[in-house]
Known about the structure:
Layout: H1 2-6, E1 12-16, E2 23-26, H2 28-34, H3 43-48, H4 59-62, E3 70-76, E4 83-93, E5 97-106, H5 108-130, E6 134-139, E7 144-147, H6 149-155, H7 176-187, E8 192-200, E9 206-218, E10 221-231, H8 233-255, E11 259-263, E12 269-272, H9 274-280, H10 284-287, H11 298-312, E13 320-326, E14 332-343, E15 349-357, H12 359-385, H13 391-405, E16 410-417, E17 420-427, E18 436-438, H14 445-452, E19 456-458, E20 476-484, E21 487-496, H15 504-542, H16 546-560, E22 565-572, E23 575-582, E24 591-593, H17 600-607, E25 611-613, E26 632-640, E27 643-652, H18 660-704, H19 709-722, E28 725-733, E29 739-745, H20 749-757, H21 762-768, E30 777-778, E31 781-784, H22 789-794, H23 804-810, E32 831-837, E33 843-852, H24 860-863, H25 867-897, H26 900-955, H27 961-988, E34 991-992, E35 996-998, H28 1000-1008, E36 1017-1022, E37 1029-1031, H29 1033-1049, E38 1055-1064, E39 1067-1074, H30 1081-1086, H31 1102-1112, E40 1116-1122, E41 1126-1134, E42 1147-1148, E43 1158-1160
Parallel strand pairs: 36-38, 40-43
Antiparallel strand pairs: 1-2, 1-5, 3-4, 4-5, 6-7, 6-10, 8-9, 9-10, 11-12, 11-15, 13-14, 14-15, 16-17, 16-21, 17-18, 19-20, 20-21, 22-23, 22-27, 23-24, 25-26, 26-27, 28-29, 28-33, 30-31, 31-32, 32-33, 34-42, 35-37, 38-39, 39-41, 40-41
Amino acid sequence: MLRLLTDGIDEVVYVVDPENYEILFVNKKAKRVFGAKIVGEKCYRIFHGRRNPCPFCTNKQLFRKETERTYIRELQNKKNKKWYKCTDKAIEWPGKKHVRFGIATDITDHKKLEEALQKSEGRYRKLIETAPVVIYTLSSDGTIASLNSKFEELTGWTCQEWLGKSFMPLIHPDDLPLAMETFQKALQGEAVSSYELRIRSKSGEYLVGEFTSIPLIEDGKIVGEFGVVQDITERKRIESALREGEELFRSVVENSHDAIVIIDDNFQIVYANDEATRLSGYLREEIIGQDFRRYISEKDKAVVESRYVCRQKGETAPSQYEFKIVRKNGEERDVEVKVKIIKDSHGKVRSIVHLRDITERKKMENERKRFEEQLSALNIYVQNLNMAKNMKELYELTLDAMEKTLGFEYASLLMIDGKMLCMVGYRGYSKSFSIKLPLDGDKGVTTRVARSGKPIFVPDVRKDKAYVEGGEGICSELAVPIKLGKKILGVLNVESKKIEAFNEQDRKFLKILASHVAIAISNLKRQEKLSALNAYARSLNKAENLEEICTITLDAMEKVLGFKFVDVFLVEGKKLRLAATRGLMKEPIFNLPLDGQKGITVRAARTGRAVLVPDVRKDKAYVEAGTEDMLSELVVPIKLRNKVLGVLNVESDRLAAFEEEDEGLLDLLASHIAIAISNLRRREQLRSLSKKLENLMKNSTKIMHITGMHKRLEVIAKAIQKFGWRRVVISLTDENLDRREIVTAGLTAEDRRLLMKRIAPGHVWQERLGPKFEKYRIGEFYYLSWNDPWIRGHVFNVPPGTPPDVAVTIMSAVPSRLSEEEMVDWHPQDMVYAPLRTPTGRIVGLLTMDDPIDGRKPTRESLVPLELFLHQAAITIENAQLIESLKEARKQLEAYAGQLEQKVEERTRELKKSQEQLLKAQRFAVIGELAGMVGHDLRNPLTSIAGAQYYLKKRLSSENDKIKEMLELIEKNITYSNKIINDLLDYSREIELEAAESTPRTLVKEVLSIVDVPANVQVKNFARQKPKMEVDTEKVKRVFINLIKNAIEAMPKGGVLTIKSRKVKDKVEITFSDTGTGMSKETLRKLWTPLFTTKAKGMGFGLPICKRFVEAHGGCISVESTRGKGTTFTVTLPIKPKMKEGGEKLWVKPLESSLSTMTRT
């Protein structure tokens, strides 16, 4: 039935056993395609040419649980290269089993069509994607169906963000009506070209697109819109810019300050702007079409015409030059012309002519030229002004400049003198006269200028009530102030018989001259003042006292510098005292604290800078000096380098009365005063020092005639006290610097009680004289300042961060007797001390000083003379100690005289004992040398015996027990003899250490692994793993082996060996304690002696060698033993041995003394 149904169809039909992949049935079509004899063959071999089942076989899917499913797939046959559409289904086969039934339809032609279509579509897609414009399609509902990549490049959106979405959000809201209209036309079959829409980019910016859209037709039906978009954003921007440019150009031309006309090649005016009509005086209609030459002056026409013709011919001609034009009213105007040749759109030559009216500029240039000529002449006079030797000459030169250079007929010069304006010179007036006008009066135009500081021009003086008539028929006046900064010195005044005779240029010239006159007057006065100040400076340096210096200073401030209210303040301790004053009705008394807020003078003294206060009413620090009339103040510090000695103070009843020049002159005077005060104080210091040195020499002579130590020290202390220190303490100390006795000067009973109560121990003084305090040393003395934070913390134990003023309140020190006023830079907690050293450098005492009389901290110069007392005090103490020692020695000699014979016998015994020890040491040295020689001589025959023994052992039969026993005996004795030789050599040779890092526990553990410990001996290893130490591990292990073996041998009946270790400072102690028999005192005494032994066998080198190894490390070995209880050996080793300089190895000479080894019982 199956064959009847399938043989007539044109598809391949097959049945396959899913278990073994055998073909059970095929129709005729299958036989024609794959061969007649294919039933029974494997399906994968026949259909697919494979050796194994196909990976895409549907058996697994068909025969799992469900057998009703159908699977369809497309496959290409490798043999005939044809494509088949295979449909597989599970069916029931005879025998009640399920098989795979399949139908394969040839779809090769269909596949070829698909491939051709894909290629065509690919080419179309490539064309679309590479197009330089956006190509899109819209569905009939307005959603976007496709977009090419140009859309992404143009807008920044990805295509996927808009596919399937409405196009309307992309269009500018104002353009949506047009977009909808064109979309509807496309749906109705109408094509629309060249319309513009704005498209929104991802950045939010709108781009301008030029659209062309047509209906989208598929299968003869309109299904949407197909469109192309050209980006014309840049083109639109350029068009807009062009429009704006054209508007801007028209705006610029029409609003230009230049007249602009355009002329054709026949001199005809074709364009003129508004400025051209204003310049010419003609209307625009009267200008356009006229010949340009009509408006040029007759003398300039030829030049303009020739240059115009040259440009028309293409020849070179100046593009910018000047000529005159004639206005409609006949007025000639100077113009500056610029010409540019262009061609219009028809190719015709046009000239763009810019005309600028320079008539006023020409006038100004001429005026400027005349001005510069006058100014040049004026400068010549100015140079002469600066060379004037006195004020009279300066006045004459000024009037010369006003009359001869500036050409004023009537000129006068007035100067301010106090509160009056006085005429000092004039020119042009027929009568001699003198004028003095009060500055606060109503008369005089010049007084008004002097008060205001501004020039005044009176065109008609008859209308000015302030004018003072001079009888010359004056009608106009010009007055200019002579100003230096804000200070008015005088007035330059010019007058004329003409009304409005003066102009702005006259005012400028007078103002320039006035400024130069002001500078010349200032320089001349400054020179006069400087000369006078230098004269006062010489007087200052001759002054004998401060009062005289203050008087000279006040004279200079008042008479030379011209100040009325003057003061001199001096710094005394922490206060600023008014030393001298002048100008006030009643002299005030001032004593201002330097750390206070009151006093502008205090501010200057504290900062070391000048202080200028224009209005003292606005300064809260100002202190009234008994009058309320003062309005301004200037204070300058009296400084010597960085130290402020006082201040100079000047005040005025005028606001802003002082200027920088006043400050400079006052500062100069202050520097002279500072030098004078410094010199005076140096002279006083020299006199004081001379007296102190005289006193010093007297006391030195007096000290020589005093025998008692205490009396001598008292004289020294009092001499130091007279040298400028109110309290002096000399302490006698022992070798640890602990005080034994004290000698004082200037201390009260309470002071002595507090001193003894708070006396510092010797170790404190050792530290204070050590390297930490070296930086505080001044010669032989040490000065510790309370203001030093390190000193407060390390000497006075003040907690860090505690302010000095707070720290003082918690200190319990001997109170100072200096008042706050007496302390300049000394603090009550400051310390000055010095060691009393003998010529050999031994410290025998200490000197401390307190409360300097001058209230100042010590200097190198002030302490140098006192160093003589240090040596005298030290020698005095040393001599006293020597005398006491001699007395003690004499007593001892007297006591020893009766026992001299006994002492001689004891000394004889000691010498005999020492001789025995020396002989013993010599014997050990000889033994060492002999051991080295014998060791080397014995090693050669032993080597031969050992070789012979080894040969006999190998050659002779091992059956002879007697011979074997004898050979083993020989071998043991050779080993023992070799050990003795090694011990001899180890004891005699130099020891070389090979340092390596290890720990106590590691060393002990390694040794215990070597030593054979009997069963009846228990070893307790408590050695620690720390610290790490550098030792010669082999030599240390040898020491440990020897000590452990000795301990085992000392416990023949068994016992406990305890090994411990501990760190002691920079060393490690390892103890070996046994519970053996112990040792006698005699044995302990000889224990470290070479060749001494208590054993039946052995040479007695074991422990001496151990001792040498330990001591070579810089360590030691000791022993404690109790008879019947046991013995403890203690090995002490440094954690890091001292290496020989220049290398890593330590060399130890042989046979060192064994006297330093410790033994205790």
